[in-house]
Amino acid sequence: MARKKQPKRENTPKMQGFIAGAGEIQAQDINDTLRQNYMPYAMSVIMSRAIPEIDGFKPSHRKLLYTMYKMNLLGSALTKSANIVGQTMKLNPHGDSAIYDTMVRLSRGYEALLHPYVDSKGNFGKFYSRDMAWAASRYTEARLDPICRELFRDIDKDTVDFVDNYDSTMKEPTLLPAAFPSVLVNANTGIAVGMASSICPFNLAEVCTTAAELIRDPKHDIFTTMQAPDFPGGGQIIFDRAAMEQIYKTGRGSIKVRSRYTYDKSANCIDITQIPPTTTIEAIVEKVIDLVKQGKVKEITDIRDETGLDGLKITIDLKRGADPDKLMQRLFRMTTLEDSFSCNFNVLIAGIPRVLGVRELFEEWTAFRMECVRRRTHYDLTKKKEKLHLLQGLERILLDIDRAIEIIRGTELEAEVVPNLMVGFGIDQIQAEYVAEIKLRNINREYILRRTAETEELEKDIADLEDVLQSRRRVRNIIIDELKAINKKYPVPRRSSIVYASEVESDDEEEQVEDYPVTLFLSREGYFKKITQQSLRMSGEQKYKDGDSLRISLESSNRCDLLIFTDRQQIYKLRLADMEETKASALGVYLPSRLQMDDGENVLTMVLPGDYKRQLLLVFENGKVARLECSAYETKTNRKKLVNAYSDKSPLAAVIPLDSETDIACYSSDDRALVFNTSLLQTKTSRTTQGVGVMSLKAKRALVRAVPVSETQIKNISRYRVRSLPAAGAVLKPEDREEQQLSMIED
C-alpha cells in the first residue's frame, strides 16, 4: 500500500531569545528621561559608590572589611585573597576583579595608606608605580590589620544600624563604629556624578590628639596639634598658612608636595626616594626624558628606576660639573616631582553629600561616636539588667532550695513546672525558666551563693551605666580615653616633613630662558611667526597664504609676554619662549588652533605688555577710546585666557601701547581725520569700560584706524588737531593721505 503523502513543513528559524519592544524607538520627554533614568543612576553613584561617609569608608570598603571580620581574620592566620573575595561577593554584587582591586588599595603591601586596614602577603603592587601590577588573588594572602580592632569596636553591641544585603540573605552594617576619626587618617578619593571627593590623610597621633582637644574645647586652635597633612609616600609639604587655613575652614584647596632627594657625590647622581602622592615613577621618568630630548635639560646623562625591596628610588646621572640643587629646582618646576594635592572634603552625612571643613568633620565624627558610645552603653545596661533580673529570681530560690526541688518533683506535667515555680516563689516566667534550666549538679548552696553575690556588683554597674547615659560629659570623657589609648597603641611618626615657602629654594624661570631679539609677524588670518634676527637677514621675504597679508609686526625679545586680542572680547597670553621659531618662508603657527579659541573667534591684533607698567589705548569703531593700565591684564597665576577683557559695545578698531603722552591720529570711513593728545583722556580702572567719545561720526560711519602721529604721513598736523573731545575732525587733504589705509577689521 502506498504511503500517504505528508504536507511539507515550513522551515521556521529557531529563536534564541526575544525581547519585547527591542529596537523600537519611543518618544519621551527629556524631563521624564532625566527623572526616571539619569537621576536614579546619579544618586546611586553618589550614595552607594563614590562618596565616603563619616566612618571614612565607601560601601565597597565597608563590605570587604566586614566580611573579613566575620571570617575571623582579625588576629588570626592569613588566608587566600581569593577566599576573601569569594565571601565578599555575598555582600557586594560585583565581579571578583573589582573586589580584589579594593582589597589591594587597602593593603599594607600597596603602601597607599598611612594605616593599612589589610595585612597582606605577596605581590600587591605599589601605588607609586603605574606599571607594577599586583599578583592574582589566588597567589596572595591577607587578613585584617590590628588597627581594625578600633574600627569594629563593639560592633556586636548595637553600636550601628544593620540592613539587609542585596538579596536579603545577610545583614551588614551601614557604618563602622570607628573609635578614631578614620575619615581623616587615610586618603579617600572618588568621582561621582556632578561632584567628587578628595580627602588628604593626616597623622593618626595628631588626629587623635586634635579630636580629644576639640571635645574638651570646641574653640581649640587646630594648627597647634595638627599643622598639615601627612602623606604615606612622604615628601615635603610646602606649608602655606593661608592656604591651609582655607582648607581647614572650607574643605577645599590645594597642598603643594615636593619630592625628597639626596646627592651621591661619589657617583655624581641624584637619588629621589620620595615623590608626591599624585604622580608615579613612570610619569616622572617619561617627562624627564622628554625634557632631555627637547633640549630643555642638558645636565642629565641617564635616568632609571631602581625601585626594589628597599623602596622607591629614581636615579638621575649627571654630567660633570652639573649643579644638582639647581637642576632639581628646574625639575620641580617642569615635572611632577613637585605637584599639588587638590582637597575636596565631600562626605555623606545622613545620606546628604556635604563639603566640610576639618573642624566640621571633627564635630560630625564626635557626634557620630557619641551616639555609638550611647548605644553601646544602652546595650550593656540592658544585658546587665536582664542578668540582675535572673539573679534576683535565683536569690529567692536560695531561701528554700528543697521546696523548689519538691515543686519540680511533685509536678506531673513538664509544661506546668514553670507556672508552679512562678506561683510558689512569686517570680516571673523568665526567672522561672532560668531556675528550671539549672543543672542538677549546680543545685548546691555554694553555686547559688556565688551567683547571687554578683547582684551587688551588677547594681553598681547598672547605676554607673545609667549615669553615663544621662551625662554628656562622661560620654565625651570615654571617647577621649579611647583616643588616648589608640594614640599610645598605634604610634607612627610623620612621614611628610613640613617646610615653609620662605625656606624653599625656587628656580628663576627667566634665567633658564635664553634671551635674544626676535621679530614677530601676525597675518590677517591669524598666522603667527617668531623669527630670529639671523633668520630674518638670510630671508626677509614673508610667505603668506593666498589672500592673506601682514597685519602687524613687532620687535621684541624671547623672554617677553604677548597679548593676543580677539573679536570675542577675549585676550590670550603667550610666552614667546614657548613659541617655536619659524622661517620667513613658512606660514607660521595658526593661533586660533594653538590657543584653542572658540568657534568663529578671530585674532584682531597683538600687543607687547612689557613689564605691565605701560598703558593701553583701546580704540572702538563707534569713535570711543578707553585708556587702561596694562596691569589690568597681568595675572598672578599662569592663566592664558582672559574673558571679558574689554567692552563689547562696539568692535575694536585698534590697540595702541602708551609709554608717555603722545599725539594719536584717528581716521574715519568717510575720509576724515583728527589728531588729539592722550592727556585729554583719563585712565579707567575697569577693563570693560566703554571709554569716552573721541570722534563724532555720522550715521553708518566708523572709526577704522588709529595710530600715533609719528607713524602717519600727515604734513599739516595743526589742520586736524583738536583741543576738546569729541570732535568730527577734518576732511583729509590729498597730500595727507596714505597710499593705503588698512583697517584691523578689514577682511
Describe this structure in words.
By secondary structure, the chain is of the alpha+beta class. It has four domains: about 55-175, Topoisomerase II, domain 5 (Alpha-Beta Complex), CATH 3.90.199.10; about 260-335, Gyrase A, domain 2, CATH 3.30.1360; about 365-490, Topoisomerase, domain 3 (Orthogonal Bundle), CATH 1.10.268.10; about 510-735, Neuraminidase, CATH 2.120.10.90. Helices cover about 30% and strands about 20% of the residues. It contains 21 helices and 34 strands. Strands 25, 26, 28, 31 and 32 form a five-stranded mixed beta sheet that branches. The chain has a four-stranded mixed beta sheet with strand order 14-9-8-17. α11 (about 360-400) packs antiparallel against α16 (about 455-470). The longest helix is centred in the middle third of the chain and has 41 residues, at about 360-400. The chain starts with about 30 loop residues before the first helix and ends in a 16-residue tail after the last strand. Mean pLDDT is about 90; it is low at about 740-745.
Summarize the structure.
It contains 21 helices and 34 strands. It is an alpha+beta fold and 747 residues long. The protein is elongated and about 140 Å long.
Annotate the secondary structure layout.
Elements (H helix, E strand, L loop, with lengths): L29 H21 L8 H12 L8 E2 H8 L7 H11 L11 E4 L19 E4 L3 H4 L10 E3 L6 E3 L8 H4 L2 E4 L4 E4 L4 H13 L19 E4 L1 H10 L1 E7 L1 E5 L4 E6 L6 H13 L6 E6 L8 E5 L5 H11 L3 E7 L1 E4 L2 E4 L2 H41 L2 H10 L6 H9 L3 H8 L8 H8 L1 H17 L1 H18 L7 E4 L8 H4 L4 E7 L3 E6 H6 L11 E8 L3 E6 L4 E5 L13 E2 H4 L8 E5 L7 E6 L3 E6 L11 E2 L9 E7 L4 E6 L3 E6 L5 E2 L7 E2 L9 E6 L8 H4 L9 E2 L16
Parallel strand pairs: 8-17, 26-31
Antiparallel strand pairs: 1-3, 2-3, 4-5, 6-7, 8-9, 9-14, 10-11, 11-13, 12-13, 15-16, 18-19, 18-20, 19-23, 21-22, 21-24, 22-27, 25-26, 25-28, 26-32, 29-30, 29-33, 30-34
